[in-house]
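Before any further analysis, we paired sequence with structure tokens, yielding the entry below:
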Amino acid sequence: MSEPVKASTSLKASKVTWRTSAASFRTLREVPAFQPAAEERYTVREKSVGALLGQCDEDNKELSLYYLSRTLVGAELNYTPIEKTCLALIFAVQKLRHYLLAHSTNLISRADPLKYIMSQPILSGRLAKWALLLSEFDINFVPQRAIKGQALANFLADHPVPAEWELTEEFPDEEIFLVEVLPPWEMYFDGAARRNGAGAGVLFVSPKKDLLSYSFVLSQICSNNEAKYQAILLGLGIAVEMQLPQLNIYGDSALVIKQLSGEFEVKKIELEPLWRYVGELLAQIPEVSLHYVPRFENGPADALAGIAASLARFDERPNQVPICERWVIPPPLEEEKEEEQTEETEESLPISGSQNQTEDWCKPIINFLRHSTLPVDLRERVQIRRTAPRYIFINDVLYRRSYEGLLLRCLSKEEGLQVLKETHGGICGAHQAGPKLHLQVKRLGYYWPTMLGDAIEMARTCKPCQLHADYIHQPPMPLHPTVASWPFEAWGMDIIGPITPKSDTDRQYILAATDYFSKWAEAAAYREVKATTVADFIRTQIIYRYGVPRYIVTDNGTPFRNKVMDRFCEKFRIQQRMSSAYNPAANGLAEAFNKTLCKILKKTVGTHKRSWDEKLPEALWAYRTTPRTPTQSTPYSLVYGSEAVLPLEVQLPSLRIAVREGLTTEECAQLRLAELESLDEQRLEAQQRLECYQSRMTRAFNKKVRLRSFQKGDLVLTVRRPMLFTSKTGGKFAPKWEGPYVVQEAYTNGAYKLVTANGSELPITNGKFLKRFYP
């Protein structure tokens, strides 16, 4: 090349004739004509990386453009395999930036470093730097199929260029030698699973089209995918023994092929060890490629697998088909063989894996990492083989690698409980809930297998957390509505007051009673309400007018809960049912009437507030003559069989009044008898409407129910209700719950009788004010 250049500088006027070598040099200086996409390959070794940039010509023939390789130095030697793969890609794009910026590039490889970098939940350090660097290039990942370009990348990685060498553009050897390449071996595999057995078939095709067929019986029943993995394992084992340099593998299972090529993830636990062992065998073959073929193209291997699976149980007569029985597992170590022989000879069984894990769960993993020894129990062996890759042993300390890439120090059960105790309630402890406590301990850098359950148990059994916990608003039991089958069978009683201001007659209480069936109400105003006042009210306002009721529902107030009322109810054989303390919903009918009566009085007293006792009869009359929602009838009509005549109907006669004025006394009597005869039917219809109303109300209530029940002897906490604050107030920082107490008796309607540790009884408490105490 130097001679034409010298001639052109010395003989400027003469015409220069370029020879073939000069034309070749001019061709090398031309900018390569890129196709729509370039191809980049790379390979990674333990101490070096290599890359190759190429493109396909019009005949789809792969051409090489640039070769790169370098050795790993310093901290790069400690990178994980996938990080070394990412480093090879970063090295290539930095050196070939001027090629890759203007064109789309296909990255051909077995592993996808782009997916690894972009799928990290948290990018920090070099990963963030790499992700930012790759964002300016148009790089698409293509699973590796062809081997030619990858072989060059492997060669460059195995023979890295020293750092002190300078790149040169001179090519001393420009001659190209033709090398005849024999076609690679081909392997077809398939597996078949039956109810009574499983088989695997493998077919090898040599470069000269010779056939080698194998059929294996799998000694354990497995799934179809496991059988296919076993088939490819058996075939790869034979290929490794034959020392095949090149191998094309064909199978009709798209799942297995794409999992091995890296397109799909292995999600089933039982396939993960097989997938890992296949990868180890694939690495022992210099050049290998995986291809998916339809089922009809994989017929011979399918037939071999079917023969092995079908003849697995037929051992009455000998068959002419040779079948090899084998179950592929990684070769055991010598220590494992000795342990298996010891296990067969020993009569006593070892301690179960759960007990060993509770005693010292780190010891088997440390023994496996340091000495490659496994425990005697088969289940523990499988579990340790699966979990050991996530552990690392550094400076006599076992660490576990988290999903974020952080190293968590492994603790024993006792050390973990001590860490939880200090983190939850120690110095700067926030008394967090179980899941948050687990995350906090994990962020501190600790791990043990049961840390989540221990954190939840620690937070649940913490007494300050239980005493200061939030109230439970969900009802603990389904709704039990009070059902009355006939008028005046059951009454609900309550006291309204003290009322401010007092009336003109110095009265400040209203004693009210409401019938559960007809919703008929009786009320009277008193200066004070005592036990004798309640007894006289029941006698004069209820018994003397409507008969002796079957039971009366009251609260736990002093006027209702005393010896006078006990003797009175015993005399008339009346059942007195008391609601639980601070639970107005247990006597909901009386509370609803109290609310309605107070609303009517508020709107009728006007400016003279102290005349409310004079307006009380009018309010009762308005309530009795108004249709109630549950029965859709007025209480007056359900009691007397007809609607009451209101003063308005007298002033402006309605149709009913006009018709009755034209009737004789005998006709009025007959009309009244007809109304009384239809009264029973009217009451039955009202009862049906009442039951439908209660059913709708029960369904709506039960949607919010979260069942919570207790048994006799359980320890519970009770809500600190207002009566407890009067005796001892704790201010803003007082606990919301009090206890623990012992359940002495459990009732069917969700109420409980509690006793203290000293044996003193508490008032009957509803279950919604209780929660379980964990000592």
The longest helix spans residues 679-702. Residues 1 and 23 are 10 Å apart (CA to CA).
